[in-house]
Amino acid sequence: xxxxxxxYNYGRISTMAVDPIxxxxxxxxxxxxxxxxxxxxxxxMHCDYCQNYSISQSPIGKKRTTYKSPADLVAFxxxxxxxxxxxxxxxxxxxxxxxxxxxxxxxDIDMVLVSNGMINEDPLKDLCKGIKAIxxxxxxxxxxxxxxxCGGDLEAxxxxxxxxxxxxxxxxxxxxxxxxxxxxxxEVLKFVKWAHEHLSPDIPIHFTRFHPDYxxxxxxxxxxxxxxxLQKVAEDHGMHHVYxxxxxxxxxxxxxxxxxxxxxIRRTGYRVHVSGLSGNRCNYCGHRLNIIR
Length: 293
Ligand code: SF4
Description:
Layout: E1 12-13, E2 15-20, E3 34-39, H1 53-56, E4 66-67, H2 70-80, E5 84-87, H3 96-105, E6 110-115, H4 121-128, E7 133-137, H5 143-150, H6 154-166, E8 170-177, H7 185-199, E9 205-209, H8 224-236, E10 242-245, H9 250-253, E11 255-256, E12 263-268, E13 271-274, E14 277-278, E15 281-282
Helix pairs in contact: 2-3, 4-6
Iron/sulfur cluster is lined by residues 43, 45-47, 50, 52, 56, 90-91, 116, 150.
């Protein structure tokens, strides 16, 4: 505009809701709490299976949005008593200016990003100074998948995960398991070994269930057995907190102490019962878990 670059999506909100924090998914960040969640328009990827394609792939102007300035958004949150805010539903990094301005106004609100990890190093480091938690999608562990199905770049996503971890932001990873596309033990092993070596065995990993959507209606839903098999693969290779998601299974979503093996959080759907923790220490053995409460 007038020779200046402007963020045309600045402040344009497509979606607002209060969600269980487990829906982000974040299982180790204030478990059992609710989080005010907002999304905008657009994305820097174009995944063929996007569940939110109506906002992520919609051009600005086509989808109805509501404008809220950062000051109005923060005032609304305070008035409602919300203490946590997630930028989610579409990709938050393309809302960089808006998120940064909102964060600056609200040091009293815990900010969270749910991201595909496609963001340059400098703006990510900048955002990491203000956010408390981030969930990053690792969509697959092969370049071809990123190139052919998403228009993304695996190395950039790995780098973002490593930057977020090094910034001491609470980090969890999501791996959506798509039958026939990214569900081999070999590929998942590469992902798990990288997470173990370059991040930490304590980083929670969520293997989530694919449902047909958008341009991939012909691909079947992920069998629960596949999710449980991959969960076991990750646990057998040293990851301490591996969950299955988008599916009701008791075995796949509870949290156990990695030291003594006792269950410390029971989850049934979005019902969460923290039964074995004092702060973030296990009640049974005193081990400190990677959980923020
Ligand atoms: S990165 Fe997320 S929001 Fe963007 S197209 Fe892919 S699934 Fe949709």
